[in-house]
Write a structure and sequence with these properties.
TIM Barrel, 213 residues, 10 helices, alpha/beta, 40% helix, 9 strands, 4-stranded parallel beta sheet, globular, 3-stranded parallel beta sheet
């Protein structure tokens, strides 16, 4: 591909650990200790989904944690991008991609992991310079066999599959040559967050950080 890659910084982040925690945090008071536990466990790249009223404040707190990289997931509109950047997000993740969304992230210089679920969507993103993409919703659109299939004609695209990834199947995704990392929520389940069981979350993160890829 001759077009300059827009995924250079995203690739560096994705290479830091095999798993990116996908976080739904309801209470900003949990942000710092949660991020610290995950970073201690070896998972420094943290995706905070914009699914709760506290999400932007959570990103702002997590961005202060040494050794961590806090990003905003579920970016859908240019307004989401602006709000995420104002909160201190260091990267963005989207379930899909539109020209308006990508225009906003490119103008702002926000490293982006845009989502694709089909070969056509992946090719459109590649044409725009994104050679690292989120494969979503991974399990629902065919899982490992789908990623194997899409890797044949499109070997120049590297994926971070998300959606239905867990401790049991993560390594089957990570073993694929076109997978750089995977996103998953099992490393920070809501019951452990609400109970403040940071040691248990750290242990889950450490186990995930040691998955082979």
């Amino acid at each position: 591909m001759t077009l300059h890659s827009r995924s250079t910084e995203t690739r560096k982040l994705c290479a830091l650990a095999p798993i990116i925690p996908v976080l739904v945090v309801h209470d900003v008071a949990h942000a710092r200790p949660l991020a610290e536990a995950l970073v201690r466990g070896g998972l420094p790249v943290l995706e905070v989904t914009l699914r709760t009223p506290a999400a932007l404040e959570v990103i702002a707190e997590m961005a202060k944690v040494e050794g961590g990289y806090a990003g905003a997931g579920t970016l859908v509109t240019p307004d989401d991008v602006a709000a995420a950047i104002n909160a201190g997000a260091q990267f963005g993740v989207s379930p899909g991609a539109t020209d308006a969304l990508l225009d906003a992230t490119e103008v702002a210089g926000l490293p982006m992991l845009p989502g694709a679920a089909t070969a056509s969507e992946a090719m459109a993103l590649l044409e725009r310079g994104y050679d690292v993409q989120k494969f979503f919703p991974a399990a629902a659109v065919g899982g490992v066999p789908a990623l194997k299939g899409i890797g044949g004609p499109l070997p120049q695209i590297t994926f971070c599959p998300t959606g239905g990834i867990n401790s049991e199947n993560a390594e089957s995704y990570l073993s694929l040559p076109n997978v750089i990392c995977a996103g998953g929520s099992w490393v920070a389940p809501n019951d452990l967050i609400e109970a403040g069981k940071w040691d248990e979350i750290e242990a889950l993160a450490r186990a995930a950080s040691q998955l082979e890829r």
